[in-house]
Design a protein that fits this description.
This protein is α/β, with parallel strands linked by helices. The protein is built from eight helices and seven strands; from the N terminus they run E-H-E-H-E-H-E-H-E-H-E-H-H-H-E. Helix 1 crosses helix 8 and helix 3 packs parallel to helix 4. It starts with 7 loop residues before the first strand and ends in a 7-residue tail after the last strand.
Length: 256
Amino acid sequence: MTRLASRTALVTGAASGIGFAVASRFAREGARVVIADRDGDSAASAAQSICEETGEGTARALTVDISDEAAVEAGFAELSTAGWAPNVVVGNAGVQLFGQDAKIAELELAAWQRTVDVNLTGTFLTVKHAVRSMLATGGGSIILTGSPTGVTGEGNDFTAYATTKAGIHGLTRTVAAAYAADGIRVNTVVPGYTETPLVTTISDDPAERAAIVGRIPLSRAGSAHDIEGIMVFLASEESAFATGAQFAVDGGMTAL
């Protein structure tokens, strides 16, 4: 399991959930990993946990609010100075405002703006500065976390979230086409309903959970570990001919 040997990977939103699972798997595959999260204490704890499993110096924490361009730019500069400029970047951080996001006629501007600031603007800033860094270091792979809500009508009660995820899918195609000649690949992974701390509002409600799992052809919820393999593939040279694409790992949700 050394498909990512010699790679340095930055994963946003990596203190927990999908981000942590992916960062941990990357480290087990031989990469150095940067645990980027706005919760600095949790990021440091996650990095320490990975180092204990895979060896000292395999992970480091980076406290960053991806919706703040100055913070994102400073974070990439810090990594470059330290010799940790990433050639793999996973733009995974995001929010889903249960109880605030809603059908459009009921959606407050504040909930819309917060979701856009983190999910779409934050992903834009992550990709912008990842590309700048990779242009200076010879290219790399950028992987973004999408959602079935950006593909189908699955997110009709989550107007802001679904819209930002659709925007991320479009960003992937645009950046992939613009920088293919520079050796920068960009792809989206589309997880289905995946039980992480982000969705406890659903997973803790038996009726809601049963309703969404009932719409999954494989008849079960996903776990963060279900997403690791495709992320490793896209981070490695095994996917050298893949760019501008969506890779669904959703139990068949978007096949319906």
